[in-house]
Amino acid sequence: MNSNRQKNRLGLILTSPYLIFTTTFFIIPLGWSLWLGFTNWNLISPDFSFVGLSNFLQALKSKNIFASFVSTYKFLIVLVPLSFVMSLMIAVIVNKLPRFKGIYLVLFFLPYLSSGVVSSLIVKGILSYDSPINHFFRDRLGLEINWLGNPVTVIFVISFMIAWKMSGYYALILVSGLNSIDPAVYEAAEIDGASKMKQFFSLTMPLMYPALYTVLTLAVGLSFGIFIEAYQLTGGGPDLATNTWQLEIYNQAFVNLNSGYASAIAIIASVVTFATIGVVKFLMQKWGEKNGWS
After folding, report:
1. 78: Cβ–Cβ under 8 A, 6 or more apart, which residues?
2. pLDDT value at position 133?
3. Among 59, 164, 206, 232, which has the highest number of CB atoms less than 10 A from its own CB?
């Protein structure tokens, strides 16, 4: 009994930093946010009142919230496949290199460490009206493209920018999945006459299931957390085309000083995010079970 108590006490001591961090920066803010969602606090005044479900009802009727819902799924549809394809290409290419794989992976990983603000400002300069790219399109091709002012092109610009930033990080995960595959599997497939393309889709992809599951889940979650790029490049425009959940929460809380309403939006956004990730995880698990993963 004394030995078990000592082990439990030691375990509690070792995990206490994580428990303190989680309680301070997650559990307490989450509880506070849930409470604020039912109030009309303006973030400054010490006085606030309980308003019940009015914040949630207002959010469900808001044009901005509907735009956030739509724009987030637009980003999801473009960003997730783009990030997946780019990271998978990097992982496959690097994994086939005879040497210096680690150096190349580090080089591809560097964009992940770059500041989103700096990257956004660079992209904004590259796509400005007087940039060399736009001069080329106007003078040589006769095309005048408003990259950040068109509701369609701006989704692809921001998605490509984020995919470029994240693909190196996701490639690290995919490379670990590739390295976990036994080479004997490919030798057996070659003996049976399977082509390289057949091996990739029938062997490599299913055997990489844990890595693919992780990357897709992270990419879907990333689609619901877009803020810096949309804030710096468009401010939510044009016509609310890039007004993401995070941007709308920021505007309501810190621009309009309506933190109660912003908390209600955050709660709705959390429900939508977890529901979407749940659907993606369910589909991935079904695909994994079909390929022998339980």
Report:
1. 155, 156, 159
2. 87
3. 59
